[in-house]
Design brief:
Blueprint: E1 10-13, E2 18-22, H1 29-42, E3 48-54, E4 57-62, H2 69-80, E5 92-100, H3 107-114, H4 118-126, E6 130-134, E7 143-145, E8 160-163, E9 167-171, E10 174-177, E11 188-191, E12 194-199, E13 221-230
Parallel strand pairs: 5-13
Antiparallel strand pairs: 1-2, 2-4, 3-4, 5-12, 6-7, 6-13, 8-11, 9-10, 9-12
């Protein structure tokens, strides 16, 4: 699977009042730390309304009246050259996983793609310590960096419906951990990822009863532990 990389960083318009910073080079922890660090600084710049860190990129939403897109873009690029690429990582969260079986219904399909056995996939998936790199498409643990390259697998061209709640999945070069099901939430979700297991003790990452509601942060770490492997 090929991953597109840039030779140098760039900032491009995104819609009518936003800018997208795309970092140069491969997706690495130091580069992502730079994304987090520059986001902390840009947050206080005049004319900036919101920020959304992504994988190797940062979306900067500007005030349509007070924001100066050209000046802000130039300032972002200039600051990016010198932004520190180090940062203290967050807490370690350990999660038990039942790989394969009913909760990991895509395990065999992924095994066929990456040419490994279910036991090898589970062992390789549980070996690294993952870092929460960027928010996901819904409140939760976001995109996890650290996946063994042997497990890289292109996402499905056509999404499929899979059970929500604690799913452990692989898509592209990333892994993902689903949050527990909230009362009243959908029990099935569309996804292009391959669900290879289910966490038996997924912590709650987002709770409106807390201030702030995010119970996990970018830079927190996740360690998966093999509870068992089901056929």
């Amino acid at each position: 699977m090929s991953i597109v990389t840039l030779e140098r960083a760039r900032v491009t318009p995104c819609g009518g009042s936003a800018l997208l910073l795309e970092a140069e080079g491969d997706l690495t922890l130091p580069t992502q730390m730079g994304i987090w660090n520059i986001a902390d600084e840009i947050r206080d710049w005049p004319g900036v309304l919101d920020l959304q860190p992504g994988m190797n990129n940062l979306l900067v939403v500007l005030d349509p009246v007070e924001g100066d897109a050209d000046a802000t873009a130039a300032r972002i690029l200039a600051r990016w050259q010198d932004i520190p690429r180090t940062r203290t990582l967050g807490r370690l969260i350990e999660v038990d996983v039942v790989y394969g079986g009913e909760g990991g219904m895509d395990m065999q399909e992924l095994c066929d793609i990456v040419k490994l056995t279910p036991a090898e996939v589970a062992a390789r998936h549980a070996a690294p310590e993952y870092v929460i790199f960027a928010p996901g498409v819904s409140p939760g643990f976001g995109y996890l960096f650290g996946l063994d390259q042997r497990l890289f697998c292109p996402r499905r061209q056509v999404p499929v419906m899979r059970p929500a709640g604690g799913g452990v999945a692989i898509g592209g070069a990333q892994s993902n951990l689903g949050a527990p099901i909230r009362p009243g939430a959908a029990t099935m979700n569309p996804t292009g990822w391959y669900v290879i297991g289910r966490a038996t003790n997924p912590p709650v990452p987002f709770d409106l009863d807390y201030d702030p509601p995010n119970r996990v942060s970018l830079g927190d770490r996740i360690r998966f532990r093999i509870e068992r492997l089901d056929a």
